[in-house]
Amino acid sequence: MTWLAPPDGSPGRPAVFSEAAIQFCLTIKVLFKLPLRQTTGMVASLLKMAGLDWAVPDYTTLCRRQKTLVVQIPYRRADGPLNLLVDSTGIKFLGNGEWQARKHGVQGRRQWRKVHLAMDTATSDIRAVEFTPSSDGDSPVLPELLDQIPEGEEIGAVTADGAYDTRRCHTAILDRQATPIIPIRKNGRPWKADCPASCARNETLRATRHYGRAFWKRWTGYHVRSRIEAKMRCLKAFGERIAARHPDSQTAEIQIRVALINRFNALGAAEIVRVA
């Protein structure tokens, strides 16, 4: 890892620390749930124990660089096409806790953000992440998640819940030559067959009506989507709320959480065997 930033020739004062150094410091902050001042002290202690006489970014530098940090998220690629599980969850960044709100009532502002994830079923690594205001819906974000997957990587299937049963989502999935596994909404009606996405969705609607929704879910393997629900819990294991206040800093904090989750996955996971 390069600790100091190489000269880039751009006008103005050059950055002292590299992007990797800033991401390392912020990773320590997220992992141990530390304030910025304590983060600089812990990083200094780690460097001292490692015998490295390196300068440590001060807390002001970390706060400022977090807004523009391009987080590198590691992931593993499995053999065969990429099968994605897509879902979203809310995370708080301002307001009282749940217990205080229940006991004393809601006081002051309570603000949330939405985290949208796309997870690889083979490796359980998170391959795409988006961070939006709480007022944004789930379905408009799916094309942006798919855009984060390299064009040359084949996508086999995209599994999501009924909130993604929209024309835009089906079109975005078929544009990547993937199969949408999305249950039709209970009040769903046939679409006008004016594009391949509408025809494929109408076939799903006919199969659901003929065989039943429960059989369709077993037949398509839809229930594997529960794995991303568990991944949401892993994301919130680093804290039920995010510490940053600026939207760009909040995005970087969530991306660092995702990078940590993928690194933990690479260390190994429990093998579950059904015995009864």
UniProtKB/TrEMBL annotation:
Instruction: Name the InterPro entries on file.
Output: Tn903_transposase, Tnp_DDE_dom, Transposase_Tn903
Which superkingdom does the taxonomy of this entry point to? Bacteria
Pfam families cross-referenced by the UniProt entry: DDE_Tnp_1_5
Q: Where does the Transposase DDE domain start and stop, copy by copy?
A: 2-95
NCBIfam families in the record? transpos_IS5_2
PANTHER family, A to Z: ISSOD12 TRANSPOSASE TNPA_ISSOD12, PTHR34631
Protein name in UniProt: DDE family transposase
User: Which source organism does the UniProt entry give?
Assistant: Cereibacter changlensis
